[in-house]
Amino acid sequence: MKRRLLGLISLVIVCGLAAGILSVSPAQAKYKEAPMLAQLVKQGKLPPVEKRLPEKPIVVEPVEKIGEYGGTWTRSVPRLASTMIHARLGYEPLVRWGRDAESIVPNVAESWSISNGGRVYTFRLRKGIKWSDGQPYTADDIMFWYKDVLFNKELTPAFPTWLMTNGKPVVVKKIDDYTVRFEFSEPYGLFLEYMAFAGNSITYYCAHYLKQFHPNYVPMEQLNKLAKDEKYDSWYALFAVKADLTQNPDLPTIRSWQLKTTPPATYVVAERNPYYWKVDPEGNQLPYIDKLAFNIVESPEIINFKALAGEEDMQFQYLWFANYPAFMENRNKGGYRVLRWQSAEIACLFPDQNTKNARLRKLIEDKRFRIALSLAIDREELNELCFLGIGTPHAATSVKGDPYYKQEFTSSYIKYDPKKANQLLDEIGLTKRDQEGYRLGPDGKPLVITINVFPSEVAMTTDGWQMVAKQLARVGLKVVIKEESLQLWWERIYAGENEIAGYVTVGMHWDVDPIWYVPTFQSTYWAPLYGTWYATGGKGGEEPSGDIRKLQTLYDKLKVTADQAEKRKLGQEILKLHAENLWVIGLMRYPYPVVVKNNFRNVPEDVIHDWRLMAPGYYNPEQFFIEQK
User: Can you tell me the distance from the alpha carbon of 394 to that of 412, in angstroms, rounded to the nearest whole number?
Assistant: First the structure.
């Protein structure tokens, strides 16, 4: 994988087909717009399209062909936040992933430079980008995010670690209206990758709108009254809602679609942003699609039923792979096609190193117990019965395409070996069994292990987890699968109340979301208290030792190094420790089913379905279109 060299680098501008972006002079194009906007221009309610676009609009290359204007994209989600109009469908950071899923390309920032040995990043914003209310997007919006959001303890209790080096927060400076500079105390080799992922949130904050809800600009007495009038307990609770693109239809945005429905609602609509700043190669202002409509449903099961019935225009989340045969069988009747996107996710078990179950914690902390769990799982059986034989048994490590990938890591302890599993369990003292053949704990008392799971878009259904439980029973381990709500699942994670969590790990660009392999946050599924300790600088949680502490030390080095070879070495050291210690037990890598109506076009077939890429955001959903008949 090609990676950028960090150091004394001057101007960086990356454009090309791999990025889905073309370099076109504005003088070459006569801009056109959607009919619904042309009508507003005629009525004098909007300025002409040329005045709504920036000086150098981004030109997006369609996946198949130039699209048509119009239509409503209908899909279903189980909760409001899952509309993703702010993220997967509204992926607009300063710099973004290219369509090769590797390169970093311009976006809100048309160029950038790196200086002072990788400590200073200077971004030149695209002049003329406007918020959806027509006001200009400038460096002042970034400074509002930095000064008024990040440095307000009530809005941001803990400064984001991805914006720190050596425990010191970044210093952001406005150079002029269209130039901002990020200064770090140490070289920061991962910063551009972080900007392409976590940096998507920087462009949420519309300063001229949000100032009216912030105490730096409004007297606190007046602000508290406003919060009370709108039934919020505090000014910052009010601000959080006002700054949320999925909850506030009045919030200006630079994204392609803007919320138009006031929550709560079971049918949510977003409408095209008339000031969106990207065009196609023929000068047509994007997006092509007029509206997004979301049905808020009770569960992923309903989403799967609606997709089977052909009621979803393009559904890329919450479809279970177990339903793949049914999707294929019904595609002609439903008028849709079924794509199999690659997934960077691996279904996994996360034994909790910090579980409050003291008896089980001693076992989980023993590497032999974790290895025994892995060897007792028959992944080929799991593949045939749950993944139609087209999944890939995979350890919990990076996948091919990740810069830290090594083939040897992917097969660590995944070969089915119940004889060895039994031997290891006997070796650590689990030799006694009850009348049903289940092993007793070292203290002679019954040993019952709970795996907590939740309904989600991951490929493993409850039936799949039940199969894992049955396989573990073959070596005498009594396992209970407990399905619960996502909210409760997270509460258990944070509190260290899980015994084993069932979910996924990620195998690509994990370095910008390190919780999967390094305890850096409370949300580290397999070691939340160690993650809390790291995130709070030792003020909370539990301090890890041994190889787990070594993971954190290696990541600290990886984060700041500017040398690509050294970065790769450090990342592979982290994965090697995982392969040896098996803190996370990988089960299966799987394809991801996507249901797309036949008249819904420009959807690529080779997307890597991954949150760090904001998929399908890195393929520009604004160029999707609906063929009008």
Answer: 8
